[in-house]
Design brief:
This protein is α+β, with helices and mostly antiparallel strands and 158 residues long. The chain has helices at 14-29, 35-47, 100-115, 130-138, 154-157, and strands at residues 4-8, 53-59, 64-76, 81-91, 118-123. It comes from Engelhardtia mirabilis.
């Protein structure tokens, strides 16, 4: 197996991350996202670190990125600490099953535990994405008792 390095993404990765997000929406939700809008959204993270940060899983031997995730923060007054949210997870199809996500997840957990202000790590998964849910469960994440609700204005902006 190739050596995998987890690194903080840079602006040079923005195009690849945006393309992966478009691919992920099509694959997991059968949803077509406009690449240019997604690219603006990815660029916004690099322009404002308060929005989050991306991590990249990179095959050192091949010198190419294989996947990414976005980390965002949520303050918990109940716990007097931050939850880190894992979002926008994508691993290239030919790299799946090689532990790429596991490496990214373990990297996030290690950083979160070392930080001292982080009280937990969360993520959400599309209800019908049983494969992803089984991966998260296998890595020790627990299904919560919360249900998610939203009002989505994104479709109105286009």
């Amino acid at each position: 197996m190739s050596k995998i390095r987890i690194r903080t993404a840079t602006r040079d990765d923005a195009g690849q991350i945006a393309a992966w997000q478009v691919a992920m929406a099509a694959e997991t939700e059968d949803r077509e996202l406009p690449l240019e809008r997604v690219r603006r959204g990815v660029e916004a993270v690099f322009a404002d670190g308060e929005k989050g940060r991306y991590l990249i899983a990179e095959d050192i031997e091949l010198g190419r990125a294989l996947g990414s995730l976005l980390l965002t923060n949520e303050w918990s007054d109940w716990r007097d600490g931050w939850f880190w949210w894992i979002q926008s997870v994508f691993v290239e199809s030919e790299a799946r099953g090689r532990g790429i996500y596991r490496r990214m997840y373990e990297h996030v957990l290690a950083e979160a535990k070392a930080d001292g202000s982080v009280c937990g790590v969360r993520l959400y998964v599309e209800v019908e994405n049983e494969y992803a849910a089984s991966v998260y469960s296998h890595l020790g994440m627990d299904k919560t008792s919360y249900r998610m609700f939203e009002v989505d204005f994104a479709g109105e902006a286009d």
